Amino acid sequence: MSDFDYDLFVIGAGSGGVRASRIAASHGARVAVAEEHRVGGTCVIRGCVPKKLLVYGAHFAEDLHDARKFGWDIPEPRFDWNVLRDNVLAEVDRLEGLYGQTLDNHKVTVFKTRATIVGPQKVRLADGTELTAERILVATGGWPHVPDFPGSEYAITSNEVFHLEALPKRIVIAGGGYIANEFAGIFNEFGSKVTIVNRGDTILRGYDEQIRDRLLQISMTKGIEFRFNAPFQSITRNDDGSLTVMLEGCEPIVADAVLVAAGRVPNTKGIGLEDVGVELDEHGAIKVDETNQSSVPSIYAVGDVTNRIQLTPVAIREGQAFADSVFGGKPTVVDYRNVPSAVFSHPPIGAVGMTEAQARDKLGSVRVYTSDFRAMKNVLAGRNERALYKMVVNEATDQVVGLHMIGPDAPEILQAAAIAVKAGLTKADFDATVALHPSMAEELVLLK
């Protein structure tokens, strides 16, 4: 028998931690996991899942309007935020139960409390109980970053936005990343007056310039306002409960809610990492090698807490690789090349591989193909909103090195197309594929 209480102790029951716990247990390890909030982590409880359900709800605003052009007699619709909010939260509760059931089925011990590291192979629970483990896995994820300015306590983050008591008539969203643009689209479709405030001059840094410019154009057409180069100065609460937002170089904005979506930071504070010698980078992320091992040999980390690629499927891959490598005798390293991503904006964005700028910088000579078109549904509905598909090709090898799309169902189409990019297929391979007509996806094999 081992001298340790557990073979593996996991701190954090999010996507990466749950996957690592389940797989390690299936390999015969004695596993425990501590979670101080709710089992499921950011994605299930306050991220991807509830956000995507709000996105689905928001799409009905345009769908119900467009249905009239397709022959449907639709009475004037009325949106009830409380109904959607409560249904979404009920679904989150259901999924949390399933995650807990999965851990229970694999005989993983769950401590619903905070755990801190007090030694290379020792943790302490909030009640003072100390437990030992041969290996410790940190999977505590990330946390919303709120800049420090007067009145910042009046702002909410993506943690609280799903619990709003009422739909704000006016909302200011701080940030230019995917969270800011997704919630801007959601609240705009629900009828809120939305203003995005960005301290820089660009939205969606890291995405292809043409794609993000198209989203900006469409968002402005839909009525979303933007303030660029406008850092927050202060927020004050008015007598009527509204908020006044003071910005550098801009007129004040009065709103009913302020959502700060200024990025996420690794959730490493106060869990004892520095005390036992775990090295962190300048952003507070745990430094790990390709096997997810930290500077302390018995301590590992996966997911957003390592700040490599902050995506749920990446955390899951890392958790699986860790468990298979350490407990399953199957050494596995995650491949971070050509990881697809999406922004569930209105319309959504899908992307994989290099942007045009990245490809030109790295490869030198590239060919770029684009298709700028109106989806058939938008044509009949009378919407001028245009989709844009972009393919970046290595001139020397004909290999497709990047695909970037904005338009209806772009993420759904991109997932399948990402397989082709990951496999290293060429433009000729795309051209040789017969189009599936009529569809938006056929544009990918018709690019000239």
Model description:
The chain has 448 residues and is of the alpha/beta class. The protein folds into 3 domains: 202 residues, FAD/NAD(P)-binding domain (3-Layer(bba) Sandwich); 111 residues, 3-Layer(bba) Sandwich (FAD/NAD(P)-binding domain); 99 residues, FAD/NAD-linked reductase, C-terminal dimerisation domain (Enolase-like, domain 1). It contains 11 helices and 21 strands. A hairpin with a 5-residue loop joins strand 11 and strand 12. Helix 1 packs parallel to helix 7. 42% of the residues are buried.
Brief description of this entry?
This protein is of the alpha/beta class and 448 residues long. The chain contains 11 helices and 21 strands. It has 3 domains: 6-144 and 265-327, 3-Layer(bba) Sandwich (FAD/NAD(P)-binding domain); 152-262, FAD/NAD(P)-binding domain; 347-445, Enolase-like, domain 1, CATH 3.30.390.30.
- Classify the fold: give the CATH topology of the largest domain: FAD/NAD(P)-binding domain
Main sheet attributes: strand count, strand direction, barrel closure: 7 strands, mixed
Low-confidence spans: pLDDT under 50, at least 5 residues?
none
* Approximate shape: globular
> What level of helicity do the residues show?
25-40%
CATH first level of the largest domain: Alpha Beta
Distance linking N and C termini: 66 Å
- Mean pLDDT, nearest integer? 96
Q: What is the domain tally? A: 3
Query: Would you tell me the structural class of the helices and strands?
Result: alpha/beta
| Quaternary structure | single chain
Number of helices: 11
Could you say what the CATH architecture of the largest domain is?
3-Layer(bba) Sandwich
